[in-house]
Amino acid sequence: MKKRIREQLLEIMSDLRQTAGGLDEILAGYGLEESLDLLAQMQELVLEAGNTIEKSEGAESGIIRKLEEACELIYQISCSLEEAGQEEPTEEREEPVEEREELQAGSEEQAEDRRELLRKLERLFAEAGQEIERKIPAGKEVLFLPYQVSMWDALESVWMAAKEDPDTDCYVVPIPYYDLRPDDSLGELHYDGYQYPHYVPVVHYTEYSIEERKPDMIFIHNPYDECNRVTRIPEQYYAKNIQKYTKMLVYIPYFVSEEEGPADHQCYQPGVLYADRVVVQPGRVYEKYCRVYTHVMKQNGWEKYLVPAREKFLPLGSPKVDKLMNMNVEIEYLPESWRKIILKPDGSRKKVIFYNLSIGSLLQNREQMLRKIDNVFQFFRERKEECVLLWRPHPLLMGTLGSMVPWLRDEYLRKVNQFKAEGWGIYDETPDPNLGMALSDGYYGDESSLLTLYRETGKPILLQDVNVLD
Asked: Phi then psi for 177, rounded to 5 degrees?
């Protein structure tokens, strides 16, 4: 039995118990038809709860027997009311309310019998609720809150493991995000929920209330909240806000760090500070997170409010590596446009080079990087019969340029459109970066978190030097 259904059953039993406790007074103010209708609604609710429990626990459950007994009591109460109504005189009365009260009354003996039946009914609902709490597992509700679909691989293997637990309800709720304008105001709103793999059941963010559901665990991969300068998620999804409604907030970085660890500021972003647990790579990466986080915590006097480093950081590795290493790419399942470029006329396969252009390199080198891109195009254009350049841009690159250097964005976009139009390479805009990495035979480009991940494949790597144009 999953957590949500259990909670609903407990709520139903509580409502039925309270209704049964006050039913004598309620019925005293109702006419016969209204009273019978109310009892029929109660019986319908009991039957619905019984069917739900039977599907999960089986027909032999002790809870089912108590609910069957409750239905019999409701039936007896209905019969008692009908008998009392039939025994009443039928002459007209001037006061219809009084007529209804007398209709319900019957003999004092009948009224006392009904009160005894109602007391039994109240006890049965209380006992049924206790049985549900005692015998039906509470289960867990686990919520995954990705935002950009290209970063879903940071959570996917964890989601796959969680959904296999029969006592766990898993929900994947992609949240929207805004582009940021140069003046730091919110720009266009994006929602990637329709781009997730077909095997991932997605719930729209408007249909899941964290405040009401209070999931047992929440997993996030975006640590920045209000500190991001390129995109921004709605404030209601900030780590400091959602951690109030869960027992365990877990942050898993969307990137993979080099051996020396992430940049210092990555170790104390809001998602890191407010998370109960942070899953990181082992070794020096783990040690750096602990060291920098502890220094910032002491520097600001946060020791009383934040989880200690050795408890917070879990050196379990990155789910991104799991995703990449488990990918099996078959040519026949690739997009048709990709197959046309990759396959030679004789059906054999060209070499595929994964080209990665980082945000930092383009921002730092600007005009020189634009020249370098032209140089790369020329090199692979001349060798298009033997190899394919698979260009995978950083998902935030275009937004970053638009926010920080609009003119550079326009020039860069011209390069992108030229590359697409010439048709000798592949511009990878698929949601999952792992496809291109798994498909490729080698890596060329800038240093980035993708490079760190690519090393796990054991394939050749050549770093790009923006100053080399030959």
From this structure: -150, 155
